[in-house]
Amino acid sequence: MSSSAVLPPCLVLDPLLRSWLLEDIGRGDRTTNTLLVKDVTLGKALWIAKASGIIAGLPVAARAFQILNEKVSFTAVADEGAWCERGEVVAEISGSLDALLMGERVALNLAMRLSGIATLTNIYVEKIADLPAQLVDTRKTTPGLRILEKYATALGGAINHRMGLDDAVMIKDNHIAAAGGIGEAVTRIRSQIPYPLTIEVETESLEQVKEALKHKADIIMLDNMSLDMMSQAVQLIRQQDNRVKIEASGNVTLETIRGVAETGINYISSSAPITQSKWLDLSMRIML
After folding, report:
1. What is the pLDDT of residues 106-157, one digit of tens each?
2. What is the C-alpha to C-alpha distance for residues 279 and 142, in angstroms, rounded to an integer?
3. Is 113 considered catalytic here?
4. Of 84, 14, 59, nearest to 282 (Cα)?
5. Rounded distance, CA 135 to CA 133, Å?
6. pTM over 0.90
7. 140 catalytic residue (yes or no)
């Protein structure tokens, strides 16, 4: 498990889980409530991987069941962040069957989603594992799931970019257009932001890179540049101000990420590990 992957505390997580459980259960589980008496019938269930990949979200799944019934026991057989093969048992759950059945879908959905993200993230990370560049995620996340989706990317080996708009200043193309230029945007923002927020500027040309350097940007993003232009930009930045961090972004794929990393940038941001990941199939089997 990546040391940078940190789950939110229950104070943050529980309201989210309660809302998702309420969405699924509504006014009551008509099937389970008809078949079983609450808290009476006990049973056991196994979670089984139906595809190979990195397992993520088991503590979240455990909490979902325990919100329904605090006596439910959720034992992770697989380590969080470990690679599992198809057919492996990843968790054992025991407790009242009504809680197991009502929590099944929400718990599985979250774990499958997060496992898929962690798995694809790790594939991207491995492509550049021997190079200094590091993969970072983006704000292209599912509304309501950002904190967990970014946990999954960190579990897969990436670094979290800003969690929200209040984490750091990122001056993008539309901000530049609205302000009338990079210099105007940086100057106006720098006079108002609190210490120690950093300022990142998105650039699309060497002229914009020079402008960002002139106005002492902390991070310069090279957006949608060709590898040749990117290499020139890296050389320009290194020659003028070696303290500036360099981020590359835009249409990064498994086929292109290594070439981008070889230009000498510090970070590669990509939404693909989240937006293009496939859920890792998991199933739950009741064992009476």
Report:
1. 999 999 999 999 999 999 999 999 999 999 999 999 999 999 999 999 999 9
2. 14
3. no
4. 84
5. 7
6. yes
7. yes
